[in-house]
Design a protein that fits this description.
By secondary structure, this protein is α/β, with parallel strands linked by helices. The protein is built from eleven helices and 18 strands. Strands 3, 5, 6, 9, 10, 17 and 18 form a seven-stranded mixed beta sheet that branches. Strands 13-12-11-14-15-16 form a six-stranded parallel beta sheet, sandwiched between helices. A three-stranded antiparallel beta sheet has the order 2-1-4. It is globular and about 60 Å long. It starts with a strand and ends with a strand.
């Protein structure tokens, strides 16, 4: 089969590799319908050391089940499924508490042992906990729009949802979203779904922020750094934002979040941090009685209700995809997202 491998920063290749096989009775093999490139895939695209051994890439997938292990009972060959970006048993103590990305038996795609999901076929460990069937949809007959929205439920939309959920977005609240990438825009949409009264989107790419406004942003702040902080404070009568959703992962975005969060407010981070030491002292969080939350989104915890929303036409998060490429051309998808000429790229197989 064809699969995406990364051999170093900027070196993305599609190679022929052996088809995956069942290694455990709890495994399933799926055939990809759609995959995509994630903003977090750009981190190794910038920094991965050169190696003679390629790293399997991809963690977002909708697919059809090809084969299941003897212990799998919730899905069967022919089922159309969504695979969350992490695999989990969905039965351990942390899964039961809604933190499936900390599953005691789970893990993440992209290792040589598990493989990546930017491929024609994939092995899904712990299939009963890691695959969710999409009822009543034939992927061969479904519209591209529907497939795109279902694909966002494997990661990007529900990561934005997680940010808003942890931040406790709701009626009467002012939410500031930092970052106009696909996750930031998804956080805008989710905050509006939760009833947030005011949503300030900090971003400077007009095409993206225009979509953010369509999805519920009431204000757009293009300025960054202290200038951006001052603008948000001005918009909120100097009080700051009840909730700040940080969807970037770089220190300047975190510093902006500390600057705009209201006393007693919460910063919810879902941008994968590219730093280890975040200020939490008197001048950043402590003095404001501000809280810090967030982390890898437990997509599995939110998936079934989100599928219902998409199928009912209540949300259309697939609009974050503004380009589609074939698997053979996936290197161009990485380049387009890196150069910011594409917001998020869907991959056909």
């Amino acid at each position: 089969m064809k699969a995406t491998m990364m051999y170093g920063a900027g070196d993305v290749r599609v190679e022929n590799v052996p088809d995956p096989v069942l290694k455990d009775p709890a495994d399933a093999i799926v055939r990809t319908v759609r995959a995509c490139v994630c903003g977090s895939d750009l981190h190794p695209y910038h920094t991965l050391p050169e190696s003679g051994t390629g790293r399997p890439m991809g963690h977002e997938l909708i697919a059809v089940v090809e084969e299941v292990g003897a212990d799998v009972v919730t899905v069967k060959p022919g089922d159309f499924v969504i695979a969350p970006f992490a695999y989990q048993d969905n039965t351990c103590v942390f899964c039961r508490e809604g933190v499936q990305t900390s599953c005691l038996q789970g893990g993440f795609y992209g290792s040589p042992e598990v493989g990546g999901l930017q491929a024609e076929l994939a092995r899904i460990p712990l299939a009963d906990g890691s695959l969710v069937r999409v009822p009543g949809v034939d992927p061969g007959e479904a519209s591209d729009e529907l497939l795109a929205s279902l694909l966002t439920l494997s990661d990007v939309y529900l990561t934005g949802y997680h940010a808003a959920h942890v931040g406790q977005a709701g009626p009467g609240m002012t939410v500031t979203v930092i970052g106009d990438g696909a996750v930031g825009l998804s956080a805008v949409l989710a905050s509006r779904q939760m009833g947030a009264e005011r949503i300030i989107l900090m971003g400077r790419h007009r095409v993206r922020t225009d979509l953010g406004v369509e999805w519920g942003a009431t204000d757009v702040v293009a300025e960054r750094g202290q200038e951006g902080i001052d603008k948000v404070l001005d918009l909120t009568n100097g009080q700051g934002s009840h909730i700040v959703l940080e969807a970037v992962g770089h220190m300047p975005a975190y510093e902006q979040a500390c600057g705009v969060v209201r006393p007693g407010g919460i910063i919810s981070r879902v941008g994968v941090p590219q730093y280890e030491d975040a200020p939490i002292g008197f001048g950043s969080l402590f003095g404001k009685n501000a809280r810090l939350g967030g982390g890898p989104a437990p997509v599995r915890n939110y998936l079934e209700p989100a599928i219902e929303q998409v199928l009912a036409g209540e949300i259309n998060p697939g609009r974050v995809f503004d380009r589609t490429v074939a698997l053979d051309d996936i290197a161009s998808a990485y380049a387009a997202m890196d150069e910011r000429v594409a917001l998020k790229v869907m991959v056909t197989v």
